[in-house]
Design a protein that fits this description.
- The chain has 496 residues and is of the alpha/beta class.
- The chain has three domains: 14-215, P-loop containing nucleotide triphosphate hydrolases (Rossmann fold, 3-Layer(aba) Sandwich); 220-253, no CATH class; 255-484, Nucleotidyltransferase, domain 5 (2-Layer Sandwich).
- Helix content is 40%, strand content 18%.
- It has 17 helices and 16 strands.
- The chain has helices at residues 4-15, 17-24, 32-46, 63-77, 92-108, 162-169, 192-207, 217-223, 225-238, 243-248, 263-269, 301-309, 348-362, 376-387, 407-422, 435-446, 471-477; strands spanning 52-57, 83-89, 117-120, 124-127, 130-136, 151-154, 179-183, 212-215, 284-290, 317-326, 334-344, 367-371, 399-403, 426-427, 448-451, 459-462.
- A hairpin with a 7-residue loop joins strand 15 and strand 16.
- It starts with a helix and ends in a 19-residue tail after the last helix.
Length: 496
């Protein structure tokens, strides 16, 4: 161990992130955009500055690999003196456990650190006297009592409750003034990560030292062409303005104040085809039905017209959107809205008869997507019984697709609907200045949204009660359910 060359090499391994990666993790060498924050963090830790940093990489760009190698390097550097690292994640399984396993694999994967590596209590990994512990920051998790004197990490910080972080985790670094790292994906302005980024940007303005490291997809693509090709394909699929693309690849914060359908998105929806009153031969159509609660008196289109004339203060209505399905649009189907209707206060027995007539005789529909939530389940069942079998006329059965609104299914519906719009696959008929079109456009403008903090990026979206209803918007959004269908024509095969 007294060999000068060996000693010099060991010195480089624990002081130079590039040397550590090249020599001990050659299959996963850190790239320049990963090395920059690693070096800044290492300098803060070694000099005991107690700085805070935010590291935000585009999706699958190597954020977790950077963390694993930084932790491995620190454990090796402080293996004799000792030291503690704490990594908090929104959940223990899978998030904290995955980070722990990646660190374990990097340590056991080379002959220098493998003999010194130890697993402690399932959630800790040690090299000599230095230890890294991986803890859950979920509500109710027992994470108190730990100390971080080398580094404190909030991984996937956008999904960690700021109150839990402030009360449970931040004090772990207080007595030692340990360096703190926040990592994750930018979503909304209310997340822990967004809060810390704003704070650190202000600190950068004060002293000029970089504390926030943003690596959008194009910076990664400049070094990894295959990554760039993959992201471009994703952008082509979802559209550049889709929230997932904006947050996870362009690293832009969502602005819930602007509404889910800002003017540019509404403009993207606008088509140049005319509204229709019935089917065009050889075309395929789907009916999208958002079901209102049942009322026993009055109603119909006349009731809608009367209530609409008095503003948005009307009863909840059943909304129908009719779309033409074009399965030959590039590689994925396109949807053109050709008509919409609204019924207010109509009994479901009467509504059932009207929907059956519209589906069979007016639009000769191939599919009906129907809101089967709550009382809508009955109407959906009746429609399945009436339309799901071949009638005496010989017409083909119509496939009835029930859709139950839950917080998770509505979230996915919203994301998928935005994807249809932003890729140009959902188009409205040209403006006809009708009352129902005016009301639909007003509902679009009034639709608000928020992305909940926590795993899953749950999207809450609706028209606030004070601003009216969202039945027409929900009916249109059910178009996204059609994207789960194989629209390719079935070709019979066999022998004569």
């Amino acid at each position: 161990m007294n060999d000068p060359l060996v000693m010099a090499t060991l010195e480089r391994l624990v002081t130079d992130a590039s040397a550590f990666s090249d020599l001990l993790v050659p299959r996963h060498r850190l790239r320049p955009y990963q090395l920059a924050p690693a070096r800044a963090l290492l300098e803060s830790i070694v000099r005991q500055r107690g700085d805070q940093f935010a590291v935000v990489f585009s999706r699958q760009a190597g954020k977790d690999e950077l963390l694993a190698q930084l932790l491995a390097m620190l454990l090796l550097r402080y293996c004799e003196r000792g030291g503690s690292i704490v990594v908090g994640a929104p959940t223990y399984r899978p998030q904290a456990a995955l980070s722990r396993d990646r660190l374990r694999d990097r340590l056991l994967g080379n002959p220098l650190t493998a003999p010194m590596t130890r697993i402690h209590d399932g959630y800790g990994i040690g090299v000599g006297r230095a230890t890294a512990r991986f803890l859950s920051a979920a509500p109710g998790a027992n994470a108190r009592g730990q100390t971080a004197d080398l580094l404190l990490v909030a991984n996937e910080a956008q999904d960690i409750d700021p109150d839990i972080w402030d009360a449970v985790f931040d004090p772990m670094a207080a007595s030692t003034n340990a360096t703190t790292l926040f990592m994750g994906t930018v979503w909304s302005a209310t997340t822990l990560l967004a809060r810390q980024i704003r704070h650190l940007r202000a600190r950068e303005q004060q002293d000029g030292r970089q504390r926030v490291f943003f690596v959008p997809w194009n910076k990664v693509a400049a070094e990894i062409p295959a990554y760039g090709a993959r992201v471009r394909a994703r952008i082509d699929q979802l559209g550049e303005h889709h929230p997932f693309i904006q947050t996870e690849y362009f690293l832009k914060e969502l602005d819930g104040e602007g509404g889910l359908f800002p003017p540019q998105r509404i403009a993207q929806m606008q088509g140049d085809h005319a509204r229709q009153s019935r089917a065009t031969p050889s075309k395929r159509y789907a009916l999208l039905l958002d079901v209102a609660g049942e009322e026993e008196s009055g109603g119909g289109q006349a009731a809608f017209a009367l209530s609409a004339a008095n503003g948005n203060d009307r009863r909840d209505s059943t909304a129908l959107t009719v779309v033409e399905v074009d399965p030959n649009s590039d590689t994925r189907p396109a949807y053109r809205v050709v008509d919409r209707r609204l019924w207010t206060g109509v009994r479901h027995t009467d509504l059932h008869a009207q929907i059956v007539d519209l589906a069979r005789n007016v639009w000769k529909a191939s599919w009906i997507v129907v809101d089967a939530t709550g009382i809508g389940a009955g109407l959906a069942s009746f429609l399945q019984a009436s339309l799901g079998r071949r009638p005496a006329s010989g017409q083909a059965p119509i496939r009835v697709i029930p859709f139950v609104f839950t917080s998770a299914s509505k979230s996915r519906l919203g994301w998928d609907f935005i994807g249809l719009i932003d890729t140009g696959r959902f188009k409205e008929y040209a403006g006809d200045h009708s009352e129902i079109t005016r009301l639909y456009e007003a509902q679009l403008r009034a639709t608000t949204f928020e992305v909940l903090n926590g795993p899953g990026n749950v999207l809450r979206w609706s028209v606030p009660a004070r601003d009216g209803h969202d039945d027409l918007v929900m009916s249109a959004a059910l178009c996204a359910v059609l994207d789960d269908i194989d629209h390719r024509p079935r070709i019979a095969t066999g022998t004569a």
